[in-house]
Write a structure and sequence with these properties.
Distance between the termini: 22 Å
Helix content: 40-55%
Oligomer: single chain
Largest sheet: 3 strands, mixed
Order of helices and strands: EEHHEHHEEEHHHHH
Strand content: 5-15%
Strand order of the largest sheet: 1-6-2
Radius of gyration: 19 Å
Number of strands: 6
Number of helices: 9
C-alpha cells in the first residue's frame, strides 16, 4: 500500500473511461517513494503526521503556522510533528525559503509504500497504528469532499462516486485485481508539478482512494486455498 497524500501504494471520484486513454505520466520513481521500515511506521503512527505529509505533497512547501491553520491545531504541535517527520526522513527544511524566524518545510517523497510483509509481520502494532492513521485521514478527505459537493461546478459533479461491490475471489484473484487496478490508474496523468504544467485546460486534481477489504466467511476461513 502506498500514498500520495498520505499513504497508498498508489493515493472515489470517477467517470467512465474515455474512448481513448490520455498519454500516461510515468509512475513516480522509487526515489520519490518512501518505503516504510519500522522507524518509518513509528513516525507515521500519528494521524496529524500523516496529514502534514499529505498537505506538503499536495500543496508544496509551507510553514508550521500555515499547516497548523489547515489542520486546526496549534502551531507548536505542528512544529513538533514536523521535527519528528524530519528526523524520520519524510520532510526536510526548505532552506531556499523563509528566514531565521520562519522555517519552511517540504515533503521529501511523493508516495509512501507499505508492502514489505516482513516489516509488517515484525511490527504489527506499529503497522496497525499507521494504517488506522491513514484510514482516519481518508475518512476526513471523504467528508470534506461531501461537504463541498453541492458547490462544485456543474461539469465536475458527475465525476464524484462512492460505491462498493461484493466479489467472491480467491487470494490469487484478489491480488490480480489489485494489480489490474494499479495498472489502470497508471494509464492516467499523475498529479505532479511537471504534469500540472503540461496538463490540458480544465484538468484538476482528482483523489482516487482504493480499498480492498477481505471479509472472510467464518465457515470458509479454514478451507480456503490459493488458486490461480
Amino acid at each position: 500500500m502506498a500514498d500520495d497524500t498520505a499513504p497508498s501504494a498508489h493515493p472515489e471520484h470517477t467517470d467512465r473511461l474515455p474512448a481513448s486513454a490520455p498519454t500516461p505520466t510515468p509512475t513516480p520513481a522509487s526515489d520519490d517513494t518512501a518505503f516504510l521500515d519500522a522507524k518509518g511506521l513509528r513516525a507515521l503512527a500519528h494521524p496529524v503526521r500523516v496529514q502534514l505529509v499529505g498537505l506538503l505533497r499536495k500543496f508544496g512547501p509551507s510553514t508550521a503556522t500555515r499547516l497548523a491553520e489547515r489542520l486546526g491545531v496549534n502551531s507548536g504541535s505542528a512544529s513538533y510533528h514536523l521535527r519528528q517527520l524530519d528526523a524520520a526522513g519524510f520532510v526536510e527544511e526548505d532552506t531556499g525559503r523563509g528566514n531565521a524566524r520562519e522555517r519552511w518545510w517540504r515533503a521529501v517523497h511523493r508516495m509512501t509504500d507499505l508492502s514489505d510483509r516482513e516489516v509488517i509481520d515484525q511490527n504489527p502494532e506499529a503497522a496497525l497504528a499507521y494504517l488506522q492513521s491513514v484510514a482516519s485521514t481518508y475518512a476526513m478527505r471523504t467528508q470534506q469532499a461531501l461537504s463541498e459537493l453541492q458547490t462544485l461546478p456543474e461539469a465536475w459533479r458527475g465525476t464524484f462516486d462512492m460505491s462498493d461491490r461484493a466479489l467472491r475471489l480467491t487470494p490469487a484473484e484478489a491480488r490480480r485485481l489489485r494489480q489490474e487496478m494499479a495498472d489502470l490508474l497508471d494509464r492516467y496523468r499523475w498529479d505532479t508539478p511537471e504534469a500540472a504544467a503540461s496538463a490540458p485546460e480544465g484538468a484538476e486534481r482528482i483523489g482516487v482512494i482504493t480499498q480492498m477489504l477481505p471479509e472472510l466467511d467464518t465457515s470458509d476461513s479454514d478451507s480456503g486455498t490459493d488458486q490461480s
